[in-house]
Amino acid sequence: MPPRHAAGAWLRIIGAAASALLAVALLQACSAMRLVYDQSPQLAYWWLDGYVDFDSGQSRQVRQELDALLQWHRSAELPQIDALLQQAQDAAPQEIQADSACRLVDELRDRLQAVMQRAEGAVALSALNLQPGQIDNIRSKFDSNNAKYRKQWLDATPADQQSRRFKEVRERSEMLYGRLNAAQREALQERLARTGFDAQRRYAEMLQRQQDLLQTLNRLSQDKPPPEQARAEVHALFQRALSSPDEAYRRHQAALQREGCEAFAQLHALATSAQRQTMVERLAGYRSDLRQLQAAR
User: Fold this and answer.
1) DSSP letters for 185-231
2) How far apart are CA 153 and CA 144, in angstroms?
């Protein structure tokens, strides 16, 4: 599927950090998933501090919130993620239609939204305590990330863009199926050659979401509204990040998601019985790790 852009550091502060780290871990070896999940509060803190540069009081608050979020996620969300993985595992031996793949994507999106909703209050309180220099730190980090994006995507030739995207999609696919054969790699390349992915359009939306984030942080840190009002503003910020205010861009993202679902369905149709069995076994391994993580409460 086409990669989603990061909506910004504070979008993922506390809330999405745990889910993002879990999603990365799910694509690694099972033992790595357990290790990364259990260490996610510390890893997420380091990542966030790289954007904000917390002071000592903020550090204690953020660490506490990350620990609390992980415990909630372990008990409330891991069983639901396990259920989604079971759906995928049960479906793996058969043909998978694009509609089914898209339903799974939507359900995963719901799980991300649940984590973000859980984190709204903590994010709002943290935003109220930000200093102007810390918001400048976030802006500087955005500038650095944007420069990397321009170099990797906007300055690249169409052929280089397609090569990068093919490498990303192939590697993610091989984490589930094992090594793809020549016919499968060719089918992926042909699909990507017809993609509606637009690096410039993605970049423009990314800049809009970053400015939205920075403006919201400035307003909250300067005006110091009551906590419930601050939480409402964070909720609205998260919703704009999940679903762009730009209707044309929402349609574009929906088209890309559908394109990704169709690409996955095509690849699965080309998968051999051995590759489908590999997918079943790897998903079973992830589920086994999830159950061990749940038992570690």
Assistant:
1) HHHHHHHHHT----HHHHHHHHHHHHHHHHHHHHHHHHH---HHHHH
2) 14
How many CB atoms are located within 10 Å of the residue 279 CB?
A: 22
Which positions ≥6 away from 55 have C-beta within 8 Å? 131
CA dist list (Å): 245 to 4, 240, 242: 16, 6, 10
Q: Which of 207, 51, 64, 47 is nearest to 133 (CA)?
A: 51
Alpha-carbon distance of 116 to 289, in angstroms, equals 24
Tokens read off for 265: 């369905």
One-character DSSP codes across 42-68: HHHHHHHHHHH---HHHHHHHHHHHHH
Closest by CA to 74, choosing from 18, 28, 26, 12, is 18
pTM for this entry: 0.85
CA atoms 104, 111, 23, 241: torsion sign: positive
Neighbour count for residue 118 (Cβ, 10 Å): 18
pLDDT tens figures, 221-232 = 999 999 999 999
At 266, which amino acid appears?
Answer: Q
- What digits encode the pLDDT tens for the residues 60-76? 999 999 999 999 999 99
- Residue 4 vs residues 118, 134, 144, 205: alpha-carbon distances, Å: 22, 26, 19, 11
- CB contact at 8 A, 161 and 199: yes
